[in-house]
């Protein structure tokens, strides 16, 4: 007999009916104290050699309905290799099917990055001679909010490079990106890394929202706060994650900031800048253009033609990280977006946009930083 469960790290599904493998009916649960939902992650047991058909019946009410267009569910037998399943969104329902090769198979909106893997990432990173693992404080659920500080060489003034990820917990590709990024800066044999560390420090928050990640949320923390709308006036009662990171930024200063995300609808990797901020000028516009062009040259999976509409002058939402940091520190501050779907420009039929490709994109940003280092 088949069974569906989601009582594990980042699990999210509600079973409406699972007595008939050919008509499994499901709903996605909302984030706590929020109407946001789209992330799902569940396990099917006892399905080996049994054709199974799934229907997520409340897909039409999800946060980003356009995200279902040309989307394919990811699945895995070993939770390491995630492959795509043909999916069909019609009349508000997401349908997909699989005849499992093994007794258990996991399904998700995107390849999950577990909190256990997050702990492994921190443990490995602190082994670097340059790294200090700093606990900034606690989340609302009592989890540690951690920052990795990688110190440069010498006593001269160094630039402060900040990278944060996963403000929106369902955007797990952001932490896969972080894994590739961190593996690169921990390589002391890399000549580009060595040169950057002669003149820069890195401040890295691999997971801004561990509570939402564990709870299986799409977009919010434990109390239902969208962290990327809390930067103007965060509080320890509602958004300690932002309060603590912002406090640390003010203590260190910021010369460059990249906030890593995923986008449900657009099937491209792209960067959004802080064009709508009051202090935006031609020099900042040139910095942004030069950096994104460098990233595009270095990594063919990144592109600059398609992205978000550019905000008009003075209309920026200052509660967002990129805009608040740009205005507060008068520096190059950006949001990197990756797709939940496959990429239009370089599709992969088996995996679509995948953890492996996220890691390569994360590693490649080091070369883009070095290419435009004097601008930071």
Concise synopsis of the structure shown:
The chain has 376 residues and is an alpha+beta fold. The protein has helices at 115-125, 173-185, 191-197, 210-215, 240-252, 282-298, 321-329, 355-371; strands spanning 3-5, 14-17, 24-27, 41-45, 52-56, 73-76, 83-85, 87-90, 93-98, 104-108, 131-138, 144-150, 159-165, 200-205, 256-263, 270-272, 332-339.
The CATH H-level homologous superfamily of the largest domain: Zn peptidases
The CATH architecture of the largest domain:
3-Layer(aba) Sandwich
Order of helices and strands: EEEEEEEEEEHEEEHHEHHEEHHEH
Specify the overall morphology.
Answer: globular
Radius of gyration: 21 Å
Structure notes:
By secondary structure, the protein is α+β, with helices and mostly antiparallel strands. The protein contains 8 helices and 17 strands. Strands 11-12-14-13-15-17-16 form a 7-stranded mixed beta sheet, with helices on both faces. Strand 8 and strand 9 form a beta hairpin. Helix 6 crosses helix 8 (355-371). The longest helix has 17 residues, at 282-298.
